[in-house]
């Protein structure tokens, strides 16, 4: 059985005080949740404060990005070592906003995944098609291409640690959610490709999150799909009650 995994991507929101208030509101709401893995991904500047508040809770700490380099002359980057130092156990990699606005490529994703795995950080690898790609019938080519390229350096024995997040770009922050059938169709194709890449035993154990306007009102139906093992939540993770309701929909 795959344990559902709900992660909140705060994106570029919240200064430290707001971040602390959000975590303080969230922690008691999900204190009794044992069967769902939970994480939040604050901005880099809030990681330290959030890490302190999460100590002793079941909520894990994720970064929103990770450098592929270990150290040195990489201005503006944050290494896996530094993330671990501050308490991160996870890192989101290849989010569509990174691909769209900051030139992130599949090759860069693969290098970041390598850096994460080499440092015991769980990579949450984001893949997804744009509206134009979906409308021109390229969804599966794009999504599976990003998957294969992004996981190019992952060995069979480490693949079970990787989390994949399918996030159709047209559904992110737009209020348009993929229907449960649309999402499941792509998740099933991702699962089949993971089985092909790493063998069925490993592929069936890997978690595939759905992301794209997940809300308390649509979470249960999405999470009820066979190959949807959790959610990567943007906007709704900024409101403690809404994020807690999504987590509880996964129980
Ligand atoms: C995301 O940022 O990964 C995301 C899915 O955002 P939203 O839930 O706001 O669509």
Q: Helical stretch count?
A: 11
The number of strands is 8
Structural class: alpha/beta
Q: β content, as a range?
A: 15-25%
Q: Give Rg in angstroms.
A: 17 Å
Bound molecules: phosphoenolpyruvate
Q: In percent, how helical is the residue content?
A: 40-55%
For the largest sheet, list the strands in their spatial order. Answer: 1-2-3-4-5-6-7-8
Query: What general form does the structure show?
Result: globular
Note the quaternary state here.
single chain
Mean pLDDT: 98
Kindly report how far apart the N and C termini lie: 13 Å
* Main sheet makeup: 8 strands, parallel, barrel
Low-pLDDT residue intervals, each spanning 5 or more residues? none
């Amino acid at each position: 059985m795959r344990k559902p995994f709900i992660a909140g991507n705060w994106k570029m929101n919240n200064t430290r005080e707001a971040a602390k208030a959000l975590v303080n509101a969230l922690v008691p709401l999900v204190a009794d949740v044992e069967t769902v893995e939970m994480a939040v991904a604050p901005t880099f500047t809030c990681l330290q404060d959030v890490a302190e508040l999460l100590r002793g809770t079941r909520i894990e700490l994720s970064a929103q990005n990770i450098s592929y380099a270990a150290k040195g002359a990489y201005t503006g980057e944050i290494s896996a070592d530094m993330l671990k130092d501050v308490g991160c156990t996870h890192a989101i990699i290849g989010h569509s906003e990174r691909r769209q606005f900051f030139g992130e490529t599949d090759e860069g994703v693969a290098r970041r995944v390598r850096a994460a795995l080499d440092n015991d950080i769980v990579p949450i690898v984001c893949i997804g098609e744009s509206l134009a790609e979906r409308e021109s019938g390229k969804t599966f080519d794009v999504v599976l291409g990003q998957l294969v390229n992004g996981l190019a350096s992952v060995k069979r024995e480490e693949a079970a640690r990787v989390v994949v997040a399918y996030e159709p770009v047209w559904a992110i922050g737009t209020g348009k959610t993929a229907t449960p059938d649309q999402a499941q169709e792509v998740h099933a194709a991702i699962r089949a490709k993971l089985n092909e890449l790493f063998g069925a035993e490993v592929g069936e154990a890997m978690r595939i999150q759905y992301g794209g306007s997940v809300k308390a009102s649509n979470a249960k139906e999405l999470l009820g799909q066979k190959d949807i093992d959790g959610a990567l939540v943007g906007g709704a993770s900024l409101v403690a009650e809404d994020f807690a309701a999504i987590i509880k929909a996964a129980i």
